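Amino Acid Chain and Its Fold in Token Form
===========================================
What this section holds: a protein sequence and its matching fold, both as plain text.
Structure line: whole-number tokens from a learned vocabulary of local backbone shapes, matched to residues.
Purpose: to set a sequence beside its fold so the mapping can be learned.
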Amino acid sequence: MSEHRARINWEKSSESFDYEEYNREHEWSFPGGISVPASAAPDFKGKADRVDPEEALVASISSCHMLTFLAIASKKRLTVESYVDEAVGYLEKNENGKLAMTRAVLKPKVQFAEDVSAEDLKTMHDKAHHNCFIANSVLTEVSIEL
């Protein structure tokens, strides 16, 4: 249906290429002209002031869920005034003993212009989860805490 592109650019800037020393900093560039400074996570010798792939995965899951949720609310003719999610992803060993982003917990707080029941809110989040492109693409267990 559609293609989505990213360019990843890394160049050696360290004296050696020893595991302890080589640089992890790189850039993610996208067709719209946006560049994102990226690195490995600090636990893997990366820089904390750059986005790491694990954070990007959590943000991608959360963003996709939110965008799907907003579409559902709009089609129900409900007005969302704000949406904030403090999402958390967990890098753990999976059932094969390999490190993986095994789960992501979304914690969305939604403000509507109208009164929306807790039951309707849960139904909308369930529908958003089951229709989110990213959640449908990953093995990571995704849960929503309301």
